[in-house]
Amino acid sequence: MLNKKEQRLRRARQTRVRIALQVKARLTVFRSNLHIYANLISADGAKVLATASTAEKELRDALKGNGGNVAAAQLVGKRIAEKAKAAGVEAVAFDRAGYAYHGRIKALADAAREAGLKF
């Protein structure tokens, strides 16, 4: 019997196989109780092109503490889209890392789309 984390990682593995076939930069998301993190990984998976998280000083100051809510996820989504454009990336494959597409994950994705990132 798999525990909750192992089930999520199993779903993530299946998704990453499909994303690898697209040969696009990958926007991955990790969420903890306190923070949410987004990484932009190159198409070949060799290097991280950009990162954004609620653990960054600028975002912590803007949030006044709580980085584990939808408002925080929206800020991270907007920030990762800005950094992606600066790195020259327009279109990405969204890797939700096995998390359900709702709440903070959905808020981050929607904010990144609104900021100009194409999924």
Describe the structure in your own words.
It comes from Inhella proteolytica. One of its GO terms (cellular component) is cytosolic large ribosomal subunit. Part of the 50S ribosomal subunit; part of the 5S rRNA/L5/L18/L25 subcomplex. Contacts the 5S and 23S rRNAs. This protein is of the alpha+beta class. The chain has one domain (4-114): Nucleotidyltransferase, domain 5 (2-Layer Sandwich). Helices cover 45% and strands 19% of the residues. It has four helices and four strands. It has helices at 4-22, 57-63, 70-86, 104-114; strands spanning 25-31, 36-41, 48-53, 92-95. The protein has a four-stranded mixed sheet. Helix 3 (70-86) runs parallel beside helix 4. The chain is globular. It starts with a helix and ends in a 5-residue tail after the last helix. The relative contact order is 0.20.
Provide a quick synopsis of the model.
This protein has 119 residues and is an alpha+beta fold. The chain has helices spanning 4-22, 57-63, 70-86, 104-114, and strands at 25-31, 36-41, 48-53, 92-95.
List keywords for this structure.
4 helices, ribonucleoprotein, 119 residues, 45% helix, Ribosomal_L18, Nucleotidyltransferase, domain 5, RNA-binding, globular, four-stranded mixed beta sheet, alpha+beta, 19% strand
